[in-house]
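quick one, 213 residues, struct below
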Amino acid sequence: MIKGAIFDVDGTLLDTMPIWTNSGANYLASLGIEAEEGLGNKLFAMTVDMGAVYLKETYGLTQSCREIAKGINGIVEGHYFADAGFKPGARELLERMKAAEIPMAIATSTEKYCIEAAFERLGYKDYFDIILTCGEVGASKSNPKIFFEAIAELGTPIEDTWLFEDGLYSIKTAKAEGFKIVGVYDKVSEADQEEIKRYADVYVRDLTEFTLV
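---
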């Protein structure tokens, strides 16, 4: 039974992972610096602030970590304000969740102002009881802190709270704590799909396939 739901955003509800995959390289390119191969994969499990530290230390940037983080966010934020859209089935699933009065939370690595702008534009901001970011809680999703804060807000038991997520590292974290997992396919994580299937209680190629609500 689903008593509560926690949603990742990028790659799960919104089709925005390609934007983030290239954000670090694009930021470096704006400084005239060529990024290492596979930089996007290295930054994938980091918060923006963690990524900024990595870029500063690895590339010897003179900008402060705060300036670097602001620059990365500046590259991607326009998509949230203007054109980031739902992945297939996401809109319909949120409607079904809302109709069933299932409390919903967002747990994301992206800055809150970007997430709020996207959902405000799409008309779904009020569907969520809370929007939590890794930056706010001070830990990436390799740490369960953000998930515990989400269920504290939702007031639902771990074993009946489902996490909808496309990132393997986040899925592993939540699964180890007893959350139910819906593994959501995203092309950016193609190489992780078989392992995601092993951890997920339910695996879907897109959210139209999720029928438990």
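The longest helix spans residues 65-82.
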